[in-house]
């Protein structure tokens, strides 16, 4: 019976450490993100969240097709700048399938050093010399299941 109690205590310690470390990782990662400032604003674009760390960032928002001009088939150009207003790169987001007076959410994740500002504009076409300069744009943030899967695989490999 003493062995079962000892085993149960070990299990509770491991589960407690798991919960504590998960909480501390989330707090640590989210506290490193600082708000980015906008250089300009558009009435069709609503930015909900623009944050960056010293190595990556994310911009979340929505585009609405409510202006006088139809924006279908155009591109949303997002420029990233450093604290000293140095151009770090740009990304084009293709605006498709937005009916009149409707909106569509977009997410942009990027890797660059020390991003502080962003600029947004709607353009008719992509400029070849402007596409993704010096910036690695990633498709999405990793979800918790993906992070756990990678951690478990790493632990099994190292074990």
> Main sheet, how many strands, which sense, barrel?
5 strands, antiparallel
Give the CA-CA distance, first to last residue: 30 Å
**Which strands sit side by side, in order, in the main sheet?**
1-3-4-7-9
Low-confidence region ranges: none
CATH topology of the largest domain: Immunoglobulin-like
Q: Which structural class fits the helix and strand makeup?
A: alpha+beta
Q: Outline, from the CA principal axes? A: elongated
CATH architectural designation of the largest domain: Sandwich
How many domains, in number, for the residues? 2
If you had to describe this structure to a student in words, what would you say it looks like?
This protein starts with a helix and ends with a helix. Strand 3 and strand 4 form a beta hairpin. The chain has a five-stranded antiparallel β-sheet with strand order 1-3-4-7-9, with no helix packed on it. The protein has a four-stranded mixed β-sheet with strand order 2-8-5-6, with no helix packed on it. The chain has helices spanning 2-32, 144-158; strands at 34-35, 37-38, 45-52, 56-64, 75-82, 87-94, 103-111, 115-123, 136-138. The mean pLDDT is 83. By secondary structure, the chain is α+β, with helices and mostly antiparallel strands. It has two domains: 1-32; 35-141, Immunoglobulin-like, CATH 2.60.40.
């Amino acid at each position: 019976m003493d062995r079962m109690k000892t085993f149960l205590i070990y299990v509770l310690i491991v589960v407690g450490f798991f919960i504590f470390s998960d909480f501390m990782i989330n707090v640590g990662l989210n506290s490193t993100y600082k708000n980015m400032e906008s250089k300009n604003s558009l009435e069709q674009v609503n930015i909900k969240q623009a944050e960056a760390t010293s190595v990556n960032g994310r911009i979340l928002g929505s585009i609405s097709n409510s202006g006088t001009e139809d924006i279908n088939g155009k591109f949303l150009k997002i420029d990233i700048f450093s604290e000293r207003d140095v151009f770090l790169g740009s990304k084009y987001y293709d605006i498709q399938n937005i009916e009149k007076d409707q909106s569509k959410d977009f997410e942009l994740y990027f890797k660059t050093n020390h991003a502080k500002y962003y600029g947004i504009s709607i353009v008719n076409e992509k400029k070849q010399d402007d596409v993704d300069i010096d910036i690695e744009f990633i498709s999405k943030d990793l979800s918790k299941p993906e992070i756990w899967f990678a951690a478990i695989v790493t632990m099994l490999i190292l074990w």
